[in-house]
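Researcher: Quick sanity check before group meeting.
Model: Go ahead. Protein one:
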Amino acid sequence: MSPSGMPSARAWLAVAAGGLVGSELRYGLGLAFPEIPGSIPWVMLWINAAGSFVLAALTTAWMARPGTAFWLRAGLGPGLLGSFTTFSTVVFAVDQLARAGQHPVWVAYLAFSLLLGLGAAGLGWRVGRLLPWTSEADAAGGRP
């Protein structure tokens, strides 16, 4: 971060590169595991849950090690994982299910997406606290 508070060019490039990689990973998984039109988009659900887990684990580790380079945190967090997991995929799926008249299904899908995402983030936080380069005091925001 520069003294003016603006991210450095390195951080901007890291977010752009991470965004490219994350969106291509999501797209590739969508091609490798195609969804059946009109069905529940399970692949996107698990992609979002996996990204929530990883982001929470990394954020917990970064809280314990605030010296982690900002460009790296920006590239992996909002860049790679922000583009890998997108709320727009949930909204798109809900819209498609609603347009097909599958109202109980889209409501259940939306609720399950939120619960699974929160659960995955909670589990990621727990795992992040167990990583070898973090201590419990560091991960909780304190100092040992």
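Researcher: Fine. The other one?
Model: Protein two, sequence then structure:
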Amino acid sequence: MSAAAVEHPCDGEPESLLESANRLSEQLPPGYRVEIIGGVITVAPSPDGPHADALTTLVLAFGATGLHGEESRVLQGPGIWLPSGPQDYAIPDLALVDADYREHPAENATYDPSVFRLVLEVTSSNYQNDLRNKVSAYAYAKIPVYVILDRRHGRVHVLTEPADGTYDSHEVYAPGQTAELPDSIGAKVTLDVAELVAAGRPRA
């Protein structure tokens, strides 16, 4: 994910950052994802096949536990309004939310962070943003669990206990290990790291 240069119209009042982000989103090809993290507009490229493969593997893992049910829902690409900046928002690859999330809308087709039990990112060329900037942004939003499938380094990160813009607990798992997520999300979820890394591995 990279910072985007934004050109302002010559006429009228200057655009807000949010207006610039929405205009940029309309101009980009399908699949590109525009976000505002820390007051900076960022653009994620359209995901490749292995990215989608890994994401589907994760959706199936969460769905098998019954988390996509009456009390919680598993969503792909929901918008989350962030308190890290006046117009910050993110669009995580995957999220586990309370089932009543529709009753908690926020600005710009996003939802209040209080309904998010977990957010998950599958890295692309934007891996540094997922591993750094979003850690701070999601922690400020007090998202209880942040999971990252780092395809570049073949690891799964599980971050919990958000406090003061960071996560007090940060566990890293390699192939051959299983990553157990906190029971607080509503069910016991165990991720096979080798399976996820293989699903997300780009073609050599």
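Researcher: One line on it for the slide.
Model: Residues 49-63 form the longest helix (15 residues).
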